[in-house]
Amino acid sequence: MGITIDKVDDALPISVIVPLDPKRRHFFENFVLPLIEANNPAEIIVNDNKGGAPEKRNAGFDKSTQEYVFFCDDDILLPADHLEKLLKALSIPSQTPIGFSYSGYHGIVMHPATHPMRGNFQISTRDFNPTALKQGNYISTMSLIRRNYFPRFDESLKRLQDWDIWLTMLKNGLHGVAVHNNEFYAYYLDEGITSNTNNEREGIINIVNKHKLGSW
Q: How far is CA 140 from CA 8, 131, 148, 202, in A?
């Protein structure tokens, strides 16, 4: 166990940070990692220490050096040019400071009988809308973030840590930019963080209270 760091010269200025569950190491090393490498990031940081995903992501971030960070779960299959498209979107001039870029994804559920989604699903790429974001999260953790704007994951939250990140950045005056036709595939190999053992209603209440969404 530990944090491993692979660096590549003449690559995209991106640190890809992976919170690896050792139970999924075979899937990650044989399917996920080759596609990350094909995206040509300058740095790949894999954290398989004990602890929750937010804790592993923050620890990986502390080891990162690149201008942009991309938190990639260990069950994600990326198109070969996924990161390049996200990076290009962040270079487009905008009147509002842009803190991150994102795309939708296809969810592939391997055990529909025990997964709350009960089957495969798709999260469409939606243009950034602050009002909609306050009503519910539609942006994946797998988004490209400018490191100087990253507020860190709240390790006290059991669910919806990604929603918390985007709301925090919004409160700091930052917007995101959607990249269409750039969807990735998320393979739900087990129940994972979205399982019924992690109460969704409680998670939403925690986010609403933390960000005082009713008073925005």
A: 26, 17, 19, 20
How does 141-157 read in b/e, with b if 16+ C-beta sit within 10 Å?
bbbbbbeebbbebbeeb
For residue 113, what are the contacts with CB-CB under 8 A and spacing of at least 6?
Answer: none
CATH number at residue 112: 3.90.550.10
Give the residue among 47, 61, 44 at the shortest CA–CA distance from 8. Answer: 44
Query: For residue 90, what are the domain limits?
Result: 3-215
Please tell me the total count of domains within the chain.
1
Continuous H helices in 107-180: 130-135, 161-171
**What pLDDT, in 10s, does the model give residues 152-208?**
999 999 899 999 999 999 999 999 999 999 999 999 877 544 444 557 788 899 999
Question: pTM for this structure?
Answer: 0.91
